[in-house]
Amino acid sequence: MSDWPLLSILLLAYPAGALSLWLLPKALSARAVAVAWHGIGGVLSLLVLAGFDTTRADFQLREKADWIPGLNVHYAVGVDGISVLFLPATAVLFLGASIAAWNSVSRLPRLYHSLMLLLAGATLGVFCALDTLLFYLFWELSLVPLYFLVSLWGLGPHRGYAATKYTLIMFGGGVPLLFGFLLLAFNHASLSSAGLPGGLSFDLPTLLGTPLPEGVELAVFLLLLLGFAVKTPVFPVHTWLPLLAMEGPAAVVALLTGLKLGAYGLIRFAAPLAPDAAQHLHGVLAGLGVIGLVYGAVAALAQTNLRAMLAYASVSHVGLVLLGIAAFTLQGVQGAVLQLLNFTLVAGGAFLATAFLQRRLGSTDVAAQGGAARTMPPQAGVRLFFGV
Fold it and tell me: CA 310, 311, 317: angle at the middle one, nearest 5?
């Protein structure tokens, strides 16, 4: 299997599944077919993990093909010891979200599940991309299905506003990301006279070895920090998450709270591409982490609705990750990665459990939960597990 293009097969499986929902006979259950495709994606992600050599520290399972030759942009994918762990975690979370929506999506089920499959493919592409423009493409593509999922299947009366606000904020956050990647490419081109291969380069392994002047490095780090902070979300650009938690469909919010793509971007791109600037501004990262940690925790304790409480708890979680990154030690980064993987299970699982509770009780207000453990003991056990 090591000679197979496993990453490309994984990334293509989800859009293929979305297409199959529209080609198969209507008699087949869209939700059953979608769950099957998510299961296939989970198996493929485990095959990728099994084919990964843990004794090597470089990017593995790499695939590269010309995409835009004139700009030296390639379809380049690969995984290392960090990103390979997020593939099965993401696949499992999407599988759980699809199962959780089994009885809650009765309107346009084919469209809903096809959008979820497309979102899964774009999310996995974020973890696999080794070309910065390919990464940016996957990053932005994830916004399209999210907008329709929230606006069409949201639970709150202001779901359209929440979807629009989220999409506009994320598009705004993508602008500094694009500028940062372009700055890196132009810097590489300007160094061609110093013996580096000439021309633009958007290849991540190449850019990791390209020296940056002090001013350019500082600009790159600030641009990437701003772009990823919006998605993480970092205080004070976190306001979209509590709104989305109250208005969006529970399964989708579970994905957004469980998958901290912005924090992954800080670990994968911002810190390695501009290491000196990152260490110089480690106080900024640590300060944002402490503020988010305390603010999110205090705000979570003040909530009377479980959905809002989990959203603010997620902001607090991000503070822990930022503190780990700001330490700039091996243990700090390992702790940050471990926390991100834990949050995939804990935050995502807790939100899915809350979704089941809402379907049974009709509300997620804390005041309406009294006595729920007596009538739903398994649900109480699940919530206790994720709470601990």
Answer: 85
Q: Please report, as a single letter, which amino acid is at residue 36.
A: A
The distance from CA 48 to its chain's CA centroid, rounded to whole angstroms, is 19
Q: Report the distance separating Cα 228 and Cα 136, nearest Å.
A: 11
Q: Which residue in this structure is represented by tokens 């899964």?
A: 120
8-state DSSP, 199: S
- DSSP classification of residue 108: S
Domain boundaries, the chain: 6-387
Q: Residue 281, SS3?
A: coil
Per-residue b or e along 205-231, where b marks 16 or more CB atoms closer than 10 Å to that residue's CB: ebbeebebeeebbbbbbbbbbbbbbbb
Q: Which residues pair with 131 in a beta bridge?
A: 203
- Count, residues in the chain: 388
Strand partners, 79: 60
**pLDDT one-digit tens code per residue, 283-329:** 999 999 999 999 999 998 888 888 888 888 888 989 999 999 998 88
Asked if residue 47 lies in contact with residue 8, where contact means CB atoms within 8 angstroms, the answer is no
Query: And the tokens for 183?
Result: 């700055």
Say which DSSP state 28 is in: S
Question: What's the pLDDT tens digit per position in 37-80?
Answer: 999 999 999 999 998 988 888 899 999 999 988 888 999 999 99
At 29 the three-state DSSP class reads coil
